[in-house]
Amino acid sequence: MKRPLDRVWNIVLTGYPRSGKTVLARRLVSSVRNIVRLSTEDVRHMLFHEPYPSRDEELVLKLTLLMRDCLLRMGTTVVIDSTAHTNRLRTRLLTTAEKASSVLVVVDADRNLLTKRGSAVGRPCITVRWDRFWEKPKTKHKMIRVKSNTHSDLEIAVNKLIRRLKLRRSMKTAQ
């Protein structure tokens, strides 16, 4: 008997720097079939070898969206790993003409922990700096909030997303 086609998702992770978005995205990719991670930070680094904001953030975004749409068209679920600090940017990342369902995943971590994580990489004031730019997430799309204070929180978040989005586990993690 043939299985129905799996739903294709456009998953957008948003959260403060050092909140655990990249760890969550990588764990999803290693746990789920037919999913890839796109990172605006990786695209920015590849093009300009510069931190945010680079000399051309619009180009970074457009290339990320082009890759996403190509992958969605091929039937591949995409997880976009991006701080996405404004609702306008989140909307652009969530909106696609491709036949895919979109979901915004808000990755939250304790503020003191964010400061500690920032200090570990030489950026102790990162949370305070991002407070000026951060907009409270609002969207017409499905939204899921997850905690990322501990490794256990991230495992719970991966399992929650797999369950809520009805994603299929990869063979190596299904056993």
Mind explaining what this structure looks like?
The structure is a single chain. The protein has 175 residues and is α/β, with parallel strands linked by helices. It has one domain: 3-Layer(aba) Sandwich (Rossmann fold), CATH 3.40.50.300. 46% of the residues lie in helices and 17% in strands. It has a 5-stranded parallel beta sheet, with helices on both faces. Helix 2 packs across helix 3. The N terminus is likely disordered.
Short key terms for the protein model shown above:
175 residues, alpha/beta, Rossmann fold, five-stranded parallel β-sheet, 8 helices, 46% helix, globular, disordered N terminus
Mean pLDDT: 91
Distance between the first and last residues' Cα: 22 Å
Q: Based on CA inertia axes, which overall geometry fits?
A: globular
Question: What strand order characterises the main sheet?
Answer: 2-3-1-4-5
Q: Find the CATH topology.
A: Rossmann fold
- CATH homology group: P-loop containing nucleotide triphosphate hydrolases
* Total discrete domains: 1
Structural class, by secondary structure, is alpha/beta
Estimate the helix proportion, in percent: 40-55%
H and E string:
EHEHHEHEHHEHH
Instruction: Please tally the helical runs, counting DSSP H or I stretches of 4 or more residues.
Output: 8
Low-confidence residue ranges: 1-5
Strand content: 15-25%
Q: In the CATH hierarchy, what is the architecture at level 2?
A: 3-Layer(aba) Sandwich
